[in-house]
Amino acid sequence: MTARHPSRSERGQLALFRVLPGDFAPRDAQDLMAYPFFSLSKTHRITPIDFVSGNVVIRVEAVPEYGMATIWDADILIWAASQIVEARDAGLQTSRLMVATPYEILSFIGRGTSVRDYRRLKAGLDRLQSTTVSTTIRQLAEGRQHRFSWINEWKDRRDGAGNPDGIEMILPDWFYRAVLDDALVLTIDRAYFDLTGGIERWLYRLVRKHGGRQRRGWRFDFHHLHQKSGSLSAFKRFAFELRGIIRRQALPGYRLSHEIDPGGRSLLAFKPTAPCGKPVKPFVRMGTPEPVPSGTRVACDWEPRSGLNDQRITENRARNLESNGESNIEEGGRAVENSRRSTVRSVGLAEKKSELSDQSAGKKGGALASEAPEFPQLLLKPSGRNP
Questions:
Q1: DSSP label of 182
Q2: Residue 169: is it exposed, middle or buried by C-beta count within 10 angstroms (0-12/13-18/19+)?
Q3: I need a labelling partner for 246 at 20 to 30 A (CA). Which of 10, 149, 259, 334 fits?
Q4: Cα–Cα–Cα angle for 111, 112, 117, nearest 5°?
Q5: How far apart are CA 278 and CA 293, in angstroms?
Q6: Are 113 and 55 in contact (CB under 8 A)?
Q7: Which strands make up the sheet holding 97-100, listed edge to edge?
Q8: Statement: residue 37 has pLDDT above 70
Q9: How far, in Å, CA of 189 to CA of 195, rounded?
């Protein structure tokens, strides 16, 4: 599928980058982890994503024929970023023009290699190529927007004998420059590819982006998470799924909990976890000459605790000063507004009490001072009788 072709001069100016063999650490671009760029559902989505927060503006559009690129399709971009960073660190030349076999891509992102998996891979490439993004992220001029597709073009390659020779694709400059910048790339847990839910996958990337530098963890209210996800689900459904993820402790490397602040807002809190207890060996002896697979990849000797305890916060926690300036702005604004409202209420109550006191004094004069109290007085001195 080549619905939109770059000029021949672009292809001619790009060196061909053949991907590296081997199983190395997956890397992800931080911009893609922090903002809503992908559909979180496998259903056909054509409704655009519109996100505005401060100076950040994002609009993602899809064509009806293919639908919007999903967060599962984004695994291809994770693979591409990992290849570019690995080659750069090895001192090799990289390029936006990449070539790889379907098997190399699918095996890296933890997929099968059947004919059906190959077809799904190509369908994902179609969605990445046809989805268009317009954003102000990393644009020096204020208000300026950069428009691109996740893949400029892709095609099947054939050798001289007409046999399949891999897939060739051209990445957009916006994505490629982000990957080459060390400050904009993070290593992610390979267990990410095992996450099956769209919200789970999106939440892990967000947590990995924001949660690594806070000594006391990180937290965000449910409503703001709903906005940042770009999900089409109603808020109640979204909150229900969040609580399910917390209950299952589904994100590798992070401890999740549900907190409720003094104002009654639901907060998702999380922080990195230490490696779990003694790992279970991948092979066990069953009285046979050879070790037998244990049937597990990574496991612990204890079951993780559920984080869904509706913990109520009784202290003023520090805001996310290190890792999330965006939430600091929102929380700071709310704090100022709440303080202002509290002051207005206090002043109003004081004025009402003063008016009521003046009216009462004017009507009764000094009579109140001499009247007997409405309730009997407490006996301050014991009587003369012995107990």
A1: G
A2: buried
A3: 334
A4: 95
A5: 18
A6: no
A7: 16-18, 97-100, 164-170, 153-158
A8: yes
A9: 11
What stretches of 146-221 show up as alpha helix (H) in DSSP? 173-180, 198-210
Query: pLDDT of 261-285, one tens digit each?
Result: 888 899 999 988 865 544 444 444 4
Round to whole Å and give the CA distance between 71 and 80.
15
Q: What is the tens place of the pLDDT at every residue in 77-105? A: 999 999 999 999 999 999 999 999 999 99
Token code pair at residue 88: 């750069």
Neighbours of 48 (CB within 10 A): 14
Question: Are 69 and 172 spatial neighbours (Cβ–Cβ below 8 Å)?
Answer: no
| pTM attached to this predicted model | 0.73
Phi first, then psi, for residue 125 (nearest 5°) are -65, -40
- Count CA atoms within 13 Å of residue 14 on its CB side: 23
CA–centroid distance for 38 within its chain:
12
Task: Give start and end residues of each alpha helix (H) in the chain.
Answer: 8-13, 30-34, 74-89, 102-108, 115-130, 173-180, 198-210, 222-229, 235-248, 325-364, 367-370
Lookup: tokens for 127: 């969605």
- In angstroms, the first-to-last Cα distance of the chain is 102
Q: What number is the average pLDDT over the span 163-186?
A: 91
The Cα–Cα gap between 290 and 163 comes to: 42
Structural tokens at position 213: 């530098």
Q: What token pair was written down for 276?
A: 């779990």
Alpha helices in 23-114 (DSSP H): 30-34, 74-89, 102-108
Amino acid making up residue 311? Q
CA distances from 360 to 290, 356, 369, 373, 381 (A): 95, 6, 12, 16, 33
In the numeric block, the tokens 């890296």 are attached to 108
| pLDDT at position 167 over 50 | yes
Asked whether the beta carbons of 151 and 169 are under 8 A apart, the reply is: yes
Examine the pLDDT at 368 and tell me if it is beyond 50: no
